[in-house]
Design brief:
Layout (H helix, E strand, L loop, with lengths): L2 E5 L4 H12 L6 E5 L8 E5 L2 E5 L13 E4 L9 H9 L5 E3 L4 H4 L3 E3 L10 E4 L2 H12 L5 E10 L6 H16 L16 E3 L3 H10 L4 E9 L5 E9 L5 H10 L22 E2 L3 E2 L5 E8 L7 H11 L1
Parallel strand pairs: 1-2, 1-5, 5-6, 6-8, 7-8, 9-11
Antiparallel strand pairs: 3-4, 9-12, 10-11, 12-15, 13-15, 14-15
Length: 311
């Protein structure tokens, strides 16, 4: 029975991971918890319907003795330095980082699932848009894609659990026509979109798909949940639209391509929802829109796939 330690299980990603562990048909996971907040006391919580005590992480040594560590932290907290210290001191200890915590990303390599190549035992789950791109490229590998673009459109939940509640308050103020007095990382996100830093997205894309020329952009929107990826692929030779469609329909990672694709329909789904593929008149470029529940794809479900391959 693999022993897994979840760091910060009370985050959105942490709760999602725990729920998936308990529903995992392969079963056999032994789960422990710690938190990294400033509070020295145990956190008392209901985790997947069961009462649980979550002790504070006191030292990096407390992360040892497990088959794998799953980090679900929203961002750097008071005790987070213990995680970085653990990674540096234990290079062979399987560790999977979820979320967009950049300091830990610098100490780990990106992974997009069970089939992804990994350079070390320390990995972070790739952004949902990159998982969508990676899986699309992998599905169409037989058609010889040579270049790719992806435009990631993120919900405000990528900025942390508190950002969801802050967005609701911003929306209420904007609807009332009053000045928004609370920002999310300095931004007003309600009913708007902001192009944000995409350096990490491009760096991870190059690492995940080194044989492909990839460029990526990132936009954060005033939407609570759900990720969108606008994907473009170029091919060495002419491809037929029906060949692309057949490949997507035969791949168990994708829902049946259709129009319209509804972001709400991706909630609690482990599948990528994709639009009908569109190939250019000369057959050399493809455009497709993918949508996903980012708490699953590029989140807890992808993390569980990676953990299965590590332990």
């Amino acid at each position: 029975m693999p022993k897994i330690l979840i760091v910060d299980p009370l985050t959105l990603l942490g709760r999602e991971a725990l729920a998936l562990f308990h529903r995992d048909p392969t079963g056999g996971w032994s789960i422990s918890y710690v938190h990294t907040s400033v509070d020295d006391e145990h956190q008392i919580a209901e985790l997947d319907g069961e009462p649980a005590l979550v002790p504070a992480l006191g030292a990096s040594s407390e992360l040892t003795g497990f088959d794998a560590v799953l980090v679900a932290s929203d961002a750097e907290e008071a005790r987070s330095s213990h995680i970085a210290e653990f990674l540096k001191d234990n290079p062979s200890a399987p560790t999977v980082v979820m979320g967009a915590w950049s300091k830990l990303h610098e100490l780990t390599s990106p992974a997009a699932g069970i089939a992804a190549k990994r350079r070390s035992a320390h990995v972070h789950v790739a952004h949902p848009a990159l998982v969508a791109l990676h899986d699309t490229v992998d599905c169409l590998r037989h058609l010889a894609p040579t270049r790719a673009t992806v435009a990631a459109v993120d919900p405000v939940s990528v900025l942390g659990t508190d950002a969801v509640e802050q967005l609701a308050r911003q929306a209420a103020q904007r609807l009332q026509g009053v000045t928004v007095d609370e920002t999310i990382e300095g931004l007003v996100m309600a009913f708007t979109a902001v192009a944000t830093n995409d350096d990490d997205l491009n760096r991870d894309a190059a690492s995940l798909m080194p044989d492909l020329s990839v460029s990526a952009t990132r936009t954060t929107t005033g939407r609570f949940h759900g990720h969108v990826a606008h994907i473009g692929l170029a091919f060495a030779d002419e491809v037929a639209e029906h060949d692309v469609l057949d490949a997507l329909r035969d791949d168990e990672r994708f829902a049946d391509p259709d129009l319209p694709v509804n972001l709400d329909a991706t909630l609690d789904s482990d599948l990528l929802a994709v639009s009908l593929p569109r190939v250019s008149a000369d057959g050399r470029t493809l455009a497709i829109t993918a949508m996903a529940d980012g708490l699953r794809i590029g989140g807890a479900y992808t993390a569980l796939q990676i953990l299965r391959s590590l332990v």
